[in-house]
Design goal:
Blueprint (H helix, E strand, L loop, with lengths): L2 H7 L9 E11 L3 E3 L2 E4 L1 E10 L3 E2 L9 H19 L6 E10 L5 E2 L2 E10 L2 H22 L2 E10 L2 E3 L1 H15 L4 E3 L10 H4 L5 E9 L19 H18 L3
Parallel strand pairs: 1-12, 2-11
Antiparallel strand pairs: 2-12, 3-10, 4-8, 4-9, 5-7, 6-8
Helix pairs in contact: 2-3, 4-6
């Protein structure tokens, strides 16, 4: 997601003192909103690992360095290490979504490429992830004589809603729609959102705008059949406008 970075680069956050945003959410009915204090979404980084072994005949694995088998060990070790070396109170997810390597069924692969995503909520976890991954990959590869290359690209940080602005947003929403249409979101999402880029330049708060239909199946975000109840547009516009109004008049 580069949209927020482009806007910041073009000066869109210059002299901004506070920012509010929303994201549609189909599991919340249209006409209602969800408020989240603290972390709303996770930081998301891109990960590429290339395992380099030595090719050989599939009948004589002892004469080669099997990059596919070592890549499997890397994936397994990374997943196991999360539960043993990461703070269980600081959620993180590492998913390898793409694997490519090998040329023929009877030839041991000399190179395998792994591509994935790394998600985290806590700033301390986020800061240490590149070194943590490098250490594990290095140990596995060194144990079996392979080489490796890691390309770790920072994506977007976690959306961390400002306390005071979230309190203001909640109050505005309840005044506009009533308490029964405003809920507190109990857990953060491991999805990502580049609204977090704006929050590096000004405090802010993002809420979930309900777009779910009352009497039909609501498909999740990014599903090919995902649809929104467009009556929610009014809810979103009024909530944002009233929150901004209250922000500018809070010291009057």
């Amino acid at each position: 997601s580069q949209g927020a970075n482009w806007i910041v680069k073009d000066g869109g956050m210059k002299d901004v003192s506070a920012i509010f945003g929303l994201h549609v959410f189909p599991s919340i009915p249209a006409g209602s909103i969800g408020i989240r204090y603290g972390a709303l979404t996770a930081a998301a980084d891109d990960l590429e690992i290339v395992i380099m072994g030595e090719s050989g005949h599939g009948a004589r694995p002892h004469q080669a360095i099997d990059a596919i088998w070592i890549a499997a060990q890397v994936i397994t070790t990374l997943q196991q290490a999360i539960s043993r070396t990461q703070n269980p109170l600081h959620p993180m997810v590492l998913t390898i979504g793409q694997i490519s390597g090998g040329r023929a069924p009877n030839i041991i692969a000399d190179q395998v490429r792994l591509v994935g995503t790394v998600r985290s909520l806590h700033p301390q976890t986020y800061a240490g992830l590149p070194d943590w991954i490098e250490k594990i990959v290095a140990n596995v590869c060194n144990a079996y004589g392979a080489r490796y290359h890691i390309n770790y690209q920072r994506g977007v940080p976690s959306v961390q809603n400002d306390l005071a602005l979230t309190q203001l947003l909640e109050a505005a929403a309840k005044e506009a729609w009533g308490s029964d249409r405003v809920s507190i979101i109990p857990e953060a999402s491991m999805g990502a959102e580049d609204f977090s880029v704006y929050l590096q330049h000004a405090p802010g708060s993002m809420f979930r705008l309900g777009v779910g239909f009352q009497n039909k199946l609501n498909y999740p975000l990014h599903h090919p059949l995902f649809a929104v109840d467009e009556s929610a547009i009014v809810t979103g516009v009024v909530t944002l406008a009233y929150a901004i109004y209250k922000y500018w008049h809070q010291d009057c």
